[in-house]
Amino acid sequence: MNQQLRRAAYRTGMFFVSIALVAVLWELYKVIGPEKGGKLFGVAILPRANDTAMPHIWEMLSRYAEPEMRSPNSKLIWFVVLKGAFYSFRLALVGFIIGSTIGVALAALMTRFKTMERGLLPYLVISQTVPLIALAPLVVSWGGKLEIFGFTWPRWLSASVLGAFLAFFPIAVGTLRGLKSAPAASLELMDSYAASWKQTLFKLRFPAAIPYMVPAFKLGASGAVIGVVVAEISTGLKGGIGRLIIEYARQATGDPAKVFTAVFGAAGLGLAMAGLVALADVLLMRNRPKETTT
Amino acid sequence: MSAVHVAGVSKIFNQGTPKQVDALVDVNLTVEPGEFVSLIGPSGCGKSTLLRLIANLLEPTTGAVTVNGKTAAQSRLDQDYGMAFQQAGLFDWRSVAKNIELPLELKGWDTEKRAARAKEMLDLVKLPEFADLMPWQLSGGMQQRIAIARALAAHPPLLLMDEPFGALDEMTREYMQGELLRICAETKTTVVFVTHSIPEAVYLSNRVVVMSPRPGRITEVINVNLGENRSEDTRAADNFFAGITAVREALRGTHADHANAGAIRGVEDR
User: Fold this and answer.
1) pTM of the model as a whole
2) Which residues of B touch A187 (CB under 8 A)?
3) Of A60, A61, A54, which is closest to residue A26 (Cα–Cα)?
4) Which of B83, B106, B134 sits opposite A195 (nearest CB)?
5) Please, which of A223, A271, B141, B230 could form a disulfide with A167 given CB 3.0 to 4.6 Å?
6) Which structural domain, as residue segments, surrounds residue B142?
7) Chain segment A113-148, per-residue pLDDT in tens
């Protein structure tokens, strides 16, 4: 346990070190990089190092403590970003839950019926090649026309559905692999007990799948966040971090540090979702054999 | 009523395709209650296939398998047998006691009855203090003992074992053989045991069934009787070596260059 704690502390430490490293590189480039951008072998690839394109790290951070707008009763920006991130977080969570339910159900179906796997999997792959930007307005307009048993489709649900759309795919594929990872000998053992398919699914296949499902769910969680943020941007949904990013980006000429506050908010949102899955991982795997690596 | 009755059984895989394999041809075998019967033979002789036919994990192409006077399918549904494999195959996510309880859980036993039986089985395999450990915290021999406890948890009259000690070192293996004999005597369980090891087959069995490949069939059945009270001394006794020699000679006849030597030479009695 002590060793585990030390490993967790080490990993957390390394996380902050790597962030600090990125910050140092950023500032370093600002010192040596060309002010107006530059060409390398005739191609314009060097970004401009001026304060409009690349504000100083401390400017971005101090911007959090300043008011969002110049009006006298404007709220401080950290509060606005946090509120937006939390709003998007709730949408992403709903999307993640919808996406994992669908993904896990699809994986179970594909495990049960070989024909399902052969027939369905290509469509799942194709579904992920549809650009989200194109899909977002469609989902919103479909959703807007829905009304079932007095339940009116709220606008935010469209964003969650798009999050679910990105989340379900890695979850379905990862869970499918996991469900199939149960050793043949264990399946034979369950057969020898005349266990039903459902018993085998819940007592053998799912527990055996967890090591495969956790990374898949992590991917799904970040997918849900991306889906929600993109949906907010492309459908103009108010209240979330996606909307803040697009609003602040428009003000980038006059207030370059502002947009970064929202970008970091979105990154933090993704981390929070991944952290949620990591927590579930620790709880589910606490009795499993520990890896022998460091 | 015999514990296992195999009558005129053949098993052909991929029948009618170029990949056709005659795994077993015209096999007849009867195992009486309380008997310990080993199946031995070179790879591909169909000994594991025969075990899986008895377990109803495979269906015979022709012939019939009866277990405890019922069809093999019915006796699987009734859990009339327990099974152990070369890999202990314990579930990593279940404690030792919960692993033993697995077959009972599947049968719908209530929690208290299950816990009581798990305790009884842990006493039987002499590992009572390991109930709450996880399987990966146990040595290979201990894991295999838990697998046996799991196989016997529902008190089945028949135990089917597929090279259960194949992955263990020699010392542990001999210890486990002694333990298996003790457990079977205490529980009066009939055993069908697949193995590669001649001494193991001779030490454990009342009868050793010698099989040969291409096509898989029974070539000889050798009666071994080392008595009820086998001990470490038995491994140095003359009749133990005589049994080993008899099985070895029978196995020699099973090689491909002796394709016609498969005729039954008559059962040797010891």
Assistant:
1) 0.80
2) none
3) A54
4) B106
5) A223
6) 87-155
7) 888 888 888 888 888 888 877 888 788 777 767 777
